[in-house]
Amino acid sequence: MEGWLQRKDEPGETAFEWGPLAITDGLAIIEGTTRYPDQTYSNLWVIRLNADGRCSSFTEWWMEHSTPSTE
Fold first, then answer.
1. Helix (H), strand (E) at residue 56
2. CA dist list (Å): 9 to 4, 6, 25, 26, 65
3. Is residue 47 a contact partner of residue 58, using CB atoms and an 8 Å limit?
4. Among the listed residues 20, 17, 15, 64, the one whose alpha carbon sits nearest the alpha carbon of residue 42
5. Domain ranges (residues) in the chain
6. Do the beta carbons of residue 22 and residue 30 sit within 8 Å?
7. Could you give the C-alpha distances from 54 to 13, 23, 27, 35, in angstroms and in order?
8. Using an 8 Å Cβ cutoff, are 39 and 61 in contact?
9. CB neighbours of residue 48 within 10 Å
10. Strand order through the sheet with 15-23
11. 62: Cβ–Cβ under 8 A, 6 or more apart, which residues?
12. pLDDT tens track of the chain, all 71 residues?
């Protein structure tokens, strides 16, 4: 927990865009992009839902975008 607090984002410092790739009664797959001042990440979430619509499972994959060379 301490590591998260030391690296917390300040308001307005990041941007997040997302959109659904697939949605069914029991499953949602979401694609997102997270932009920090010095780095960008692609995100993929798989969210499984119970019959009452509450989350029963959440899995996240993320990939750091490469930083272009300045040479």
1. strand 55-64
2. 9, 9, 34, 32, 19
3. yes
4. 64
5. 18-64
6. no
7. 30, 14, 11, 28
8. no
9. 12
10. 15-23, 27-36, 39-49, 55-64
11. 34, 41, 42, 43, 44
12. 667 777 778 888 999 999 999 999 999 999 999 999 889 999 999 999 999 989 999 999 999 998 766 66
Q: Max alpha carbon distance in the chain (Å)?
A: 54
Coil, strand or helix: which one is 3? Answer: helix
Supply the pTM of this predicted model. 0.74
DSSP single-letter state for residue 17: E
